[in-house]
Amino acid sequence: MQTEHFQYIIIGGGSGGYAAARTAREVLDRVAIIDGADTLGGLCILRGCMPSKTLIYSAEVLHHAKKGKSFGLDIPTTGADMSALQKRKQKIIDEFAEYRQEQLESDRFTLFRNRACFIDPQTIELDNGQRLTADHFMIATGSSVAVPPVPGLAEAPCWTSDDVLDLDFLPERVIVLGGGIVACELAQCLRRLGSEVILIQRNPRLLKQMPEAASLTIENAFREEGIDLYTGTNLQSVHHTDGVFHVAFEQDGQSLKIEAPHLLNALGRVPAIEGLHLEAAGIETKPSGHIACDQFQKTSNPQVYACGDVAGPHEIVHVAILQSEVAARHATNRKAEPVDYDGLVSVAFTDPQVATAGLTEQLIRERGLDVLSADYPFDDHGKSILMEAKHGYIKVYADTSGRVLGAECVGKDAGELIHSMAVAIQLQANVRNLLQVHWYHPTLSEIWTYPLEAILEEL
Fold it and tell me: Which residues pair with 248 in a beta bridge?
């Protein structure tokens, strides 16, 4: 079979892969995309962002309906129709997936519906035996569910997030292993739909990558909603017998065992590099399994770039897109600015939501910066009070000139609210500038004025 040559080959047709192909195609004629998944679309559309947030929002609506009396409403019957939820979810993701498929199948690109692996630094082989070479490659293969070395976990028929997102029945009782974003989002979603949920987290707190105050807020909200929460645990074993999962763990020196008919493994994800034969191409990886890249996403093989979950350091869709665009521009000898992670935005779609922008308090301390900060609680803010959205707080960090460096928001619609500060951080705005904005009353957004005013007084 004859070897075919392209100017740019992308392995993986998700959000990062498509963005790389689109950016390369601006100046190149021969761009190929390789994606052997059963359905085109990528993790975000098919099994991540879109389906999870669709179900989470439905669970939030149900949660508010159950609390109708708090709003002076008489809603006599509430419940989840899991079949209807799945139909709605599928309709939404099908629309996005069909559009992505049209983009990938466009005559602008050559699409190979195959798996691929490297056989040398310049050549890949498809699972049908065809070989391809390229001036440059992009690896955008994403991530897969991690299975940590807990005795019995690999052998047990656990659910993954994929399984939970496809549930057409309401499980009576579920054990959730993990305390990261996926674990917390799905645990709360299941609880609000009507399941009994037990969450077991190895770290002393939930959402360990988020600020400590945010973790405490989420833990309090979860317990208030009836989630049985165990943090700071040491998982001992997982067994599955007679249709029941048995999870043994230690907490505070005590040996505990929890049983349930269903178990969700949400203990993290790992880079999807299996089968790529990176060593054949001279591509180095980090101890975490992520592909090692420079600031332009170039790997140890100068012809190969990587982006998104497979590269890190942040497994977020918009970061994958930014990385892929930088890489494609760099590979085609155009001006390329490395991704500025000092402006990073992160969101957890729990309720309350958790969102951060810019430098975290930890990074500020590590850099030895002189900083001013101020916070304000949602339970003292007019709009959040009338919305019964009193959990949480906001916090702003600024340097001694008043320039905003970072912000935290834990509360109702924090993922939307954080963008006010994200824009301010990226534009290097000063608290004085921000206080000239017309912050409308009563809105959730106007809560930012309180810490901004407090910092201005310190200046």
Answer: 237, 257
Q: How many Cβ atoms are within 10 Å of 68's Cβ, its own excluded?
A: 13
Give the chain's end-to-end CA distance (angstroms, integer): 71
DSSP 345-364: EEEE-SSSEEEEEES-HHHH
Residue 441: active-site member:
yes
The residues that bridge with 406 in the sheet, in sequence order, are 358, 397
List of domains in the chain = 4-40+105-145+270-339 (3.50.50.60), 161-267 (3.50.50.60), 342-458 (3.30.390.30)
**Residue of 5, 277, 290, 441 marked catalytic:** 441
Q: How far is CA 342 from CA 327, 354, 394, in A?
A: 19, 18, 19
Amino acid at 333: N
Q: pLDDT tens across 221-232, in order?
A: 999 999 999 999
Question: Coil, helix or strand for 283?
Answer: coil
Among candidates 408, 406, 398, which has minimal Cα distance to 431? 398
Q: Which two tokens stand for residue 304?
A: 């190969």
At 123-136, the pLDDT tens digits run: 999 999 999 999 99
